TrEMBL record:
Chief site of localization: membrane
Annotated TM spans: 12-37, 68-87, 107-125, 311-328, 340-358
PANTHER family with a match to the protein in the record: LIPOPOLYSACCHARIDE EXPORT SYSTEM PERMEASE PROTEIN LPTG, SLR0882 PROTEIN-RELATED
Any one annotated GO CC term: ATP-binding cassette (ABC) transporter complex
InterPro entries registered for this protein in UniProt: LptG, LptG/LptF_permease
Membrane topology field: Multi-pass membrane protein
Protein's UniProt name: Permease
Subcellular location(s) per record: Cell membrane
Organism: Aurantiacibacter luteus
Domain of life: Bacteria
GO biological process, one term: transmembrane transport
Amino acid sequence: MLLDFFPSRVLTIYLAKMFVTRIVAVLAMLVLVLMMLDLLGKTGDILAVPGNGQGELLAYASLRVPQLVSRFLPYSVLLATIITLAGLNQNSEVIAMKAAGLSAHQILAPLLLVGVLVAGLSFAFNERVVTRANATLKAWEAVDYAAIPADPATRSNVYFNDGNDILMAATAAGRGADTVLTDVSFYERDDNGMIVRQVDAAHATYAGADRGWALTDASVFDVGTAQTRNEAQLTVAPGLTLDQVELRRVDADAETLPELSRSIAALQSADRRTSELEAKWWHKLSGPLSAVLMPLLGAVAGFGLARSGNLFIRAVIGMALGFAYFVVDNAALAMGSFGGYPPLIAAWAPFFLFLFVGETVLVRTEE
């Protein structure tokens, strides 16, 4: 049995199906157009790599589409809300529902229910698909589309400090004790920051705690004597631990909620600043809930008299409220990233602010 908050079962299904259809249509249109524009800019870079062809273009599209879906799903819900309610208003269906005794909140109830379902699906999609696509695409872009790395966590052009010394590598692949650095350069510096020795090697592996990183077939250049010698085995950077290497990997967009929780805990134990990551952790929860907020912000388009341009003005107001939310949300997240707002406030304040704004507008104008 439906609660009194919802209209009849038939009307609830009718409104929900209409809303879902328009969400899917708007989202498909946005993703297709944006994907084509993105390919126009990226095709040249991808095909510039010898051996790349149609398969690599399709691989890029398969990695980019989940990002576009995740980013523009809330916009699709907003536009679908305005299209749905404006159509109902123009066809006098809203008037008929009000004449039957339904309030504005009851008319919006099926749309809010769909918004809750979309928010849940969006969260699951972000955790299971988008994070993996982000990790793989960033690793591929880091090697200029040469080859998709087998390990999406592979990073390019990394460097680490061991006191005054610096260890640089073209790539860092693997995790934990299995981490492998390639195209390695080690710069040993004195207390004044001057380089006294440079060591180059093709690979470096972790040699163990307090031992550093083992280089094979290393070329050692001594600045003082200006001589170069070869070393079959050499260990450098004894102070560079696995924790330091792992902490440099944290990318909130490429980690699931549990993974990001562990990364934040590790950074906090190392006395590192985590406000940016904490804000993004909370935003992984508040972000999908914007799908619940959009029907409320766009509801202004569904009521009032559909004549003399009034419907168009209301649709513009609903769209403005929705886009204002996204602007404030991004601004608050940016403020939370550099410590201007506490992470919890940065992630949730825009949601509750516009929840109250949307509810106030609806109650003052329709209830």
